[in-house]
Amino acid sequence: MLRERLRNVGSAVALSLCGLMCLCAVLPLAAMLYHVIRNGAPAINVAFFTQMPKPLGEPGGGLLNAIAGSLTLIVLASAIGVPIGVTAGVFLARASGSRGAFWVRYAADVLSGIPSIVFGVVVYELVVVPMKGFSAFSGGLALSLIMIPTVVRTTEEMIRMVPYTLYEAALALGAPDWRATTSVLLKGARTGIITGVMLAAARVAGETAPLLFTAFNNQFWNMKLNQPIASLPVQIFNYAVAPWDEFHQKAWAGSLVLVTLVLGLSILTRVATRGRYEIIQ
Amino acid sequence: MEATYSAGLRPRPQLIISDKVFNVLLGVAGAVVLALIAILGSSLAFGSSAALKVFGWHFTIGTNWDPVKEDFGALPFIYGTLMSSILALLIAVPVGVGTGIFLAEIAPKRLAEPLAFVIELLAAVPSVVYGMWGIFVIVPLMRSLQEYAGEHWSNCVLLSGPPVGVGLLTASVVLAIMILPFIAAISKDSLQAVPRTQAEAGLALGSTRWETISGPVLRYARKGIFGGIILALGRALGETMAVTMLIGNNPQITASLFRSAYSMSAVIANEFSEATGDLHTSALVSIALVLLVLTLAVNALARLLIWGVVSQSEGKAA
Fold first, then answer.
1. Nearest beta carbon to residue A100 from set B30, B184, B237
2. pLDDT for the residue A49
């Protein structure tokens, strides 16, 4: 009897320990969100989004150049990464059993495990050095390399969810293969693919490391692709490690914007696709 | 059975040319993805050749990093990367796996689903934000801990050092928080993939709930969980911004957890854009190469384990 009771008590203790572990996991994460909101919210105002950074000591000012720079980089990264990623994803879905598909899938897997800073180093070697300078283009390229594996895998998964019979029906109606693929398979998977692309874009919006020596940073307004460009994450990094409180304020506000963007997009896509797809990250 | 969308039927022969073009286009995109790996590898190999020619294999065991004298050894950085990642795993694995068990087996569905979603969301928070939070929240906490340790446990080698806040342990704690969501999510998924019968058999034999979970259920899921842990290790190894902001950026190897260190990714982030000479740049590219090889090896191991789980469960379903 005693043994029995001990076992039950032991079980209850172990189960509650697991609950405690869950609390330990959620607590720091909740604390981080709390600090970002509490410290960032007071510094968020219209000027933050519409004004250029002011020099140290002058009050006010915003991060307009960094926000615009981040948007530019994301658009650039998507413009390079999405066409390649989606096409390669279609290739994988159609040729899923072939040896070529195996290696492409493997390559996408390998790419997704490579630390983002390595992409930065490679783009520096291949683009920044020959172009003799940091540039928005090289930053966008580095980000696109990070996006590609995600886009490839999402496209493949989403196309696989379109019923095969629809594709066959299109062929039976006399549509050529390319037509059946683009108008039936791609169209059917459209929502899922767009969701995946948006999630991938949100993820790279927060990437800092590969931008440090590709897009670099810029204190001024720049929309030229062959010039260095500011970005929100790099600006947050520079402000956070600087010793001045005014900069810290701006860094918190920037973090809040970035976190809102990333988490907002994730929640939005989750709500929009609830019950339809398992989101594969 | 999985459907493959290959064009087995060719209903209108006159259109085959356009299909051929289309197929070539798809193949080219696939080839681009493959080529990226080759480009990546060869570019790093080319960039690192100058430094590796000078230092050879001693590059990885040299302890001196002196851009002025052009003497480069990567061991302090390799040490810092490995140490901070392993410490992070030591913290994150019990918490993450415990969370996974709680979410998959213990919590009622109404609680588990939103919790799992929140934890998944936090994997998406940019690392620079974690780094910033670390600087302003964890570093002060760590500083008081270090002051306390300095007063009470000053004899302990592991805990010696000036109370500056940043250091190996600080970076590891924040790294642990960053990789926690991965471990928790993959543990949860692996546990949920365990057939119900596995748990029922345990309960039928008179096990308590915990004995069932820790025995037949956990044993069935252990490969997937282990794969997830290795995957998280890969993330931790390559993590840059949070580590750069918290590890102290001092290339030294000491026994103390409180002292500052340096990691491979951090030295690249800090020095690459202002490297003082070709050899310095090349040495940094060599570090990137070492980092790449390390993460690829770790990821390959994880894939091997996770693929094993997938084929195992597919075999059951068939």
1. B30
2. 85
What are the residue ranges spanned by the domains of chain B?
74-317
CA pair distance B26, A88, nearest whole angstrom: 6
Res. B314: pLDDT tops 70? no
CA distance B170 to B180: 16
The pLDDT tens digits of the residues spanning B285-299 come to 999 999 999 999 998
Helix pair A99-113, A64-94: axis angle to 10 deg: 160
Q: pLDDT class for A34, splitting at 50, 70, 90?
A: very high
What residue segments make up the domains of chain A, in order of their start?
48-272
Name the minimum distance, in Å, from the CA of A58 to any CA of chain B.
23
Q: Average pLDDT, stretch B112-130?
A: 88
Instruction: Confirm or reject contact between B272 and chain A (CB < 8 A).
Output: yes
Say yes or no: domain B74-317 is CATH 3.40.50.300: no
Contacts of A209 in chain B (CB under 8 A): 127, 240-241, 265, 269
Q: How far apart are alpha carbons A258 and B125 in whole angstroms? A: 8
Q: Is A268 on the interface with B (CB under 8 A)?
A: no
Quick check: A118 and B288 CB within 8 A?
A: yes
Our measurement of the distance from residue B291's CA atom to the centroid of its chain's CA atoms, rounded to an integer in Å, reads 12
Superfamily of domain A48-272: MetI-like (1.10.3720.10)
pTM of the model: 0.88
C-alpha A121/C-alpha B240 separation (Å) is: 13
Instruction: Quote the pLDDT of residue B264.
Output: 93
Q: What is the pLDDT of residue A97?
A: 78
Measured in angstroms, the CA of B155 and the nearest CA of chain A are apart by 30
